Every structure is written in structure tokens, then in C-alpha cells.
Amino acid sequence: MPDFDFVAVGGGNTGLTASYRIAAAGKRVALVDRGPVGGLCSLAGCNPKKVLVRATEVLDEVRRSGEHGIDAPVRGVDWRKVIARKRTFTQPVPDQTEAALKKAGVERIRGTARFVSPEAMRVDGRELSSGGFLIATGSTPRPLAFPGGNLAKTTDEILELEEPPDSLVIIGAGVVAFEFGQVFARLGSSVSVLMPSDRALRGADETLVDALVMHSMRLGMEFFPHTGVKRIVPADGRLSVEGETSGKARTWTADFVLNAAGRVPNLESLDLSAAGVASDKRGVLVDSYLRSPGNRRVFAGGDAHGSRQLSPVASYEGRIVAKNFLEGDVETVSYESIPQAVYTVPPLAWVGATEAEAREKGPRIIAPLYDKENWRVFAIAGERPAMSKVIVEESTKRILGAHLLGASAAEVIHVFAMAMRFGLTTTDLEKMVWAYPTFTSVLDSTWK
Fold this sequence. Notes:
Blueprint: E1 6-9, H1 13-24, E2 29-33, H2 40-44, H3 46-63, H4 79-90, H5 93-104, E3 107-110, E4 113-117, E5 120-123, E6 126-129, E7 133-135, E8 139-141, H6 155-158, E9 167-171, H7 175-186, E10 190-194, H8 206-218, E11 221-224, E12 227-235, E13 238-245, E14 248-254, E15 256-259, E16 263-265, E17 279-280, E18 283-284, E19 291-292, E20 295-300, H9 311-327, E21 340-342, E22 348-352, H10 355-361, E23 365-366, E24 369-371, H11 376-381, E25 387-393, E26 399-405, H12 409-421, H13 426-429
Parallel strand pairs: 1-2, 1-7, 2-3, 7-20, 9-10, 9-15, 10-11
Antiparallel strand pairs: 4-5, 5-6, 8-16, 12-13, 13-14, 17-18, 19-20, 21-22, 22-26, 23-25, 24-25, 25-26
Helix pairs in contact: 1-9, 3-4, 3-7
């Protein structure tokens, strides 16, 4: 008889969700993690980052309050207080998670896991056999291979800065670059974003991304397309970033260099080959049930298999894993209607296909682009920029994708995600009566 029915490796969203559900079904469950548990989102990702974003969002609102007839000068920003507030959300997480695991009856095992066979793994000298395993070890910042790459810091460190840097260089042009770039640009930092190509935020609509870039430039951010970094060297207490941008040599001097070049799965210590589990550079290879084809007692979820590096997707996959472990292979994973958001001010959000992707697949579509700054609900709020593009299949009125830039975009996008998930058409949505004047109330004007 195995030691456990199920062993989850990793104490983030996927591992915790699956463990709680499987333990609730009366199974013997263990969760292995070196600690602290709670996951990237809660400890050094979504939640603490949003505290910083919210602080600068309030700052932006106060600075623009004169548009509404309010005289509210900004006398200063106490960033130490912002960081202290952030810690009230992160510091309790590990203890709260440990307590929740205990209450759920999940055995918490501290240490580094390594497979020793298809049916067992060893954790710091203790061997554990199990009827099922879940690899949910998350991801780690992509290493920078050039000389001095280790001098670039990660989101862990930038979230602990108690004073904004005078100058910030960001390597990469994804979500992290835009969110932290805007935060510190609003605080007065000089921000340089080094882009590996001429495109930022791949997956989002190019026109809306361009508008967000222009807005970020108005805040003081600088973007350098087609830029490769050759090395980072210390320079009189600061850092010198040497590279080439659009074919020309260039050097940036910074107080802080942020590695925003993406994340890679954290799998090195697992010895997957001993379990018959295959992987590639994106992570563990899994089928639509999130099982390893080479060893079907092994599941993988979250950043460990790399299909979607999003916290809510990790929780969703944890639910899928638990269901398929408990009931057999009864539910496949689907990513077609997963919304995404970039928490800039204003936010950018999207779900489904871009216009280019939709046209490539063949159906005749309509994809009107609207600049909504002067639409009444946005004008009343004084929020800008505001744009949208909704992609609709002309014959069926099915929504194939939606892309929003503007106030409440990260909330409104859920209407489109739900419509896509449950097969609602634009004809169905036009039957709705929305509260007015809300940002949702103008939805039916975005696809006509």
C-alpha cells in the first residue's frame, strides 16, 4: 500500500487547490514544498504588485482631480508606508496557508522533492510512494545569459524597495515591464524599457498596445525596440547596462535593473526522467487531462507545464487535476475563454483571438476599432485613453475575441469571457439592459 493517495509538489495555487479538494474526498494527501507556501501570486506577484499599482492609481487620480474642480495638491508620496501596507497582505500568507493545510488534513512536508521511480519520490531522505503525483513547482525568472546578468533583480526585490530608484532599466516588454514601469514612472523614476523586438505584450491587439505605449511614454517611460543587452557592470555604485539598440551601441546607467524577460518552469531538482515524465523548454508535457503521457499517475499544472502563466488558470487547473484524479479522466482543460489583464493605469485586457488570428482562421469577421475617450461615460469619468476592438464572426455573431484599453477594462472583459465560454452571441448581449452610466453600458456599441 502506498504511503499516500496523492502527493502535490508545490504550495502555490495549483498544488493547494488540488490538495484541498482531494483531501476533502477522504484521501491521504501530502504537500511538499521547501516553503514558504502560498504561491507566487500571494507572496510576490499579483496581490503585492496590485497594492503598488493601486497606490499610484490613487496618486494619478489626485493629480488629475483639478479636471473635476477639486484642488488636491500632492505634497509627497511616502513609499515606505506603501511597502508596509503591501506587507500586511503578504506576511500572513505562509502561516495562514500552513493552518489551512492542517485543518484540511493535508500532511505538510518541508524539503526538496526528487523522483526515484514512477511510483515514488524522495524528500530530503524520506521516501514517499503515492497513487498520484502533481508537479506544481511553479516558475522562476528566466536567467539572463550575458555577463553580469545576475546583477539584474527580479520582482521579489523590486517589491521590497522602500524608496523609488532614480533610474530604472527594465529588460523585457511584457506584463511585468509595463506594470512596474508605470508604477515607478508615476513616482518620478526615469524608466527605460529594453524591448527584444518591436512588439510588446504579444497576444494583445497591436493597436491597443501601441496606444498603451504612447500613454506610458507620456508618463515618462522610454521604449527601445530591437534591443539586445551584452553585459551589465557595476559603475560607481550604480549599474551600467551595455547593449545594442536598432543596430547601434548604447549604454544605460541605472540604480536598479529589473529582469522582466519572462519566467521558466522550476523543474531542475525533480529528476523527471526517473519517473518517466517528459518535458521541454516550456515545462512538463501533459495531455488534455493534465496527465503526463509517459506516467499517467503524474499530473502537472500551473507554470510547471507552461501553457498559461496566470494565477487563476493555476487554480482552475488544480480543480481539473482533483476531478480527474478522483473520478477518472472526466474533464479536459480549455484555455479558449481565459481573460488576461495588464494592470497599468488604465488597464489593458483581452480574451480570445486577435484580429489577425481570427482572420487567419478563415471566417468572415467584423472587428471595429473604437477610440472611446469622448464617449459620454468615459468623458464623465475623465478617464483616458479608452479604446476597444471586439472581433465577431459575421455570420453567427459569435464573439471570437475582445480587446479593451481603459477604465475598468479588467472587470468588463469578464462579460466577453463569459459570453465566449457559454456560447452567447452579440445578439444575446444586445438583449441585456445595463445600469447607466457604467462602462459596461456601452458594450453593445463596441461591435457595431
